[in-house]
TrEMBL record:
Organism lineage string: Bacteria, Pseudomonadati, Pseudomonadota, Gammaproteobacteria, Oceanospirillales
Gene: ytoQ
Recorded superkingdom: Bacteria
Pfam families: Nuc_deoxyri_tr3
Name the UniProt record assigns to this protein: YtoQ family protein
InterPro entries in alphabetical order: YtoQ_family_protein
Length: 146
């Protein structure tokens, strides 16, 4: 069973690569996609639409262009993994989780236990809460098991 998995969330650690390596090592048939993880490129996604003197409008244009990718890939996925790191607030990840919930798209959250309380609603709609990338790989192995 081939599984399409969208990896959402923080871009400051190598958690995506850890999951990909774990899935490959386990021989899982998984196709991974994600948002653009180059922060500068993501911020500049709408720059080709014209210069803005106000940073709000630059961010607005770029968020719309980024949303084309994000929404399309989430809709095409079978499962979404939403990572919340401890260093920055990932409002985009919370939005992605809410989008998944609205679509009825299964998602797994990945975060430390010290942010369980602020994520209680996000975790409440998730199919699972993982604390490590190894746990995510185990979920993927179970889901793709024949």
């Amino acid at each position: 069973m081939s599984l399409h998995v969208y990896l959402s969330g923080e871009i400051h650690t190598d958690w995506r690569d850890e999951i990909k390596r774990g899935a490959e090592k386990a021989g899982l048939d998984v196709v991974f996609t994600s948002a653009v993880t180059d922060h500068d490129a993501s911020d500049a996604a709408g720059d080709h639409l014209g210069a803005e003197s106000d940073s709000f409008w630059r961010d607005h244009k770029s968020s719309k262009v980024n949303a084309i990718r994000t929404r399309t890939l989430i809709e095409q996925s079978d499962l979404v993994v939403v990572r919340f790191g401890d260093k920055y607030k990932q409002w985009n990840a919370a939005y992605d989780a809410g989008y998944c919930a609205a679509l009825g798209k299964p998602y797994v959250t990945l975060h430390a236990d010290d942010i369980v309380h602020p994520l209680k609603e996000v975790d409440g709609s998730a199919m699972a809460w993982a604390q490590t990338t190894d746990q995510v790989v185990e979920i993927l192995a179970y889901v793709t098991r024949s």
